[in-house]
Amino acid sequence: MCVLNNKLYVVGGFDVDDQLLDSGYRYDLQKNDWMILPNLTEKRANASLAVYAGSVFVLGGETSTRKRNAIVEPSISDSRQLLATVEVLDEKRKKWRKIGPDNKYGCLPNGTCQMAVCGATGHGIFLSGGENNEYEFAMIRFDDIDDNEKYGGGFSSIIRQHTTYVKLEPHKFAHVGHQMHWINGKLYLVDSSDVPSQGCEFYDIANKIWTQLIQFTPVSRSFTSSAALGDVIYLLGSSEEQNALTQSLQAFDTDGQDWLQMSGLPPSCKDFQLAVIRIPFTIE
What we know:
Radius of gyration: 19 Å
Mean pLDDT: 80
Largest sheet: 4 strands, antiparallel
Number of helices: 2
CATH class of the domain at 2-67 and 78-170: Mainly Beta
Helix content: under 10%
Strand order of the largest sheet: 1-2-3-4
CATH architecture of the domain at 2-67 and 78-170: 6 Propeller
CATH topology of the domain at 2-67 and 78-170: Neuraminidase
Strand content: 35-45%
CATH superfamily of the domain at 2-67 and 78-170: Kelch-type beta propeller
Order of helices and strands: EEEEEEEEEEEEEHHEEEEEEEEEEE
Shape: globular
Distance between the termini: 23 Å
Number of strands: 24
């Protein structure tokens, strides 16, 4: 899930019958309406979405014929494939296109899913962790894009450029199914996997160093969902160490580098996603 031009994009996954999807939708809050997007070039679930240079990207993911909540023995899990491909949406031509080094297929060095990704203007798309890459931190760089294209050139500028996968300093903790937020030149990682964790950290791009955040209080959590608004990262819901649902809501002030305890949510909840959308003055 990602937001571009105050519209919410949802792509891929499983349907109610556990069938893998290549479909996608865009939600316009102003019109209170869902729009069907073009189909992906291949079906995928547990992929990651990012916004960069005015375009929506879908990265990695998995294809599988197994049920999404089933426990699969290693000997019968051959039908599951992790994807190394990256697609970008051309909304004008109403199609997705795969990209990669020199515009060839296979943008990622190996198949992975449940990464945290984040587009950063003037840099590229940052990628963190994921299955098989738990400690890896990297960036997809788009070469030879001039300043105008970096600041909103969209699909037409992206598809013409060479892409380079650049490995960066690995993070201190293993991360899968987590979230990443770009705030004031730093990338913040917030765990949200099914394993209770306190491994939140941030990366200072200028100094190329990872720093662990002040830990959650009073216990570690899993299935946490987070979103950034201004300089503050909000964490909603989760399951605590005893796997009991919690109504807790916390916020991390990146300016003061401190956790803030806030009032809880009305219902206890976990394993959902958050996004920030501006509320228009009028909704049609």
